[in-house]
């Protein structure tokens, strides 16, 4: 099928992997859209969010603005915020999770990526 060292480099395989992962995420997003969820903005976290190319691929595939957070470690940070929320609930505070995230989750506008037309 024409895939050989002369026609494909490591960068081709890396981009194909990024596109494949993003298309897989889009499959899940489209299922949520059919349930009525709107996604006007995608928040990218973790190591992949540091790649300008991957953010552009996501913006184009999702046809939505992609933003990153000032704290890029999404999974660990999210777990810590959930732990804080649970701790405060355990103490008897009536606090909603959005109050925690509103206080601690800050966007990084310098890395906002728009979909290409």
From TrEMBL:
<dbReference type="InterPro" id="IPR050406">
    <property type="entry name" value="FGGY_Carb_Kinase"/>
</dbReference>
<keyword id="KW-0808">Transferase</keyword>
<protein>
    <submittedName>
        <fullName>Xylulokinase</fullName>
    </submittedName>
</protein>
<dbReference type="GO" id="GO:0016301">
    <property type="term" value="F:kinase activity"/>
</dbReference>
<dbReference type="InterPro" id="IPR018485">
    <property type="entry name" value="FGGY_C"/>
</dbReference>
<comment type="similarity">
    <text>Belongs to the FGGY kinase family.</text>
</comment>
<feature type="domain" description="Carbohydrate kinase FGGY C-terminal">
    <location>
        <begin position="8"/>
        <end position="85"/>
    </location>
</feature>
<dbReference type="Pfam" id="PF02782">
    <property type="entry name" value="FGGY_C"/>
</dbReference>
<dbReference type="GO" id="GO:0005975">
    <property type="term" value="P:carbohydrate metabolic process"/>
</dbReference>
<dbReference type="InterPro" id="IPR043129">
    <property type="entry name" value="ATPase_NBD"/>
</dbReference>
<keyword id="KW-0418">Kinase</keyword>
